[in-house]
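Handout, page 2. Input:
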Amino acid sequence: MGNKFSKEQIFEEVKKILVEEMEIDEGSITLESNLFEDLDLDSIDAVDIAVRMQKFTDKKLPPEEFKKIRTIKDVVDAVYALLE
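Output:
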């Protein structure tokens, strides 16, 4: 079946969530950004991102996968893998 979203589309959705919901400056969001150190998010924010990505993809990110996520790239890769 393949992915209905590209990694770029997933990245753009994550970025939109961070800007609109977490009020993070768009210029500071890169694939290498660490959610906790660079973007100053906490675990509640991270769960909120996971819930919003679940709505975006109609797929649930398993908690064991979510615990491994540290960077924006990790989020994108995990969501992309979930859709394969």
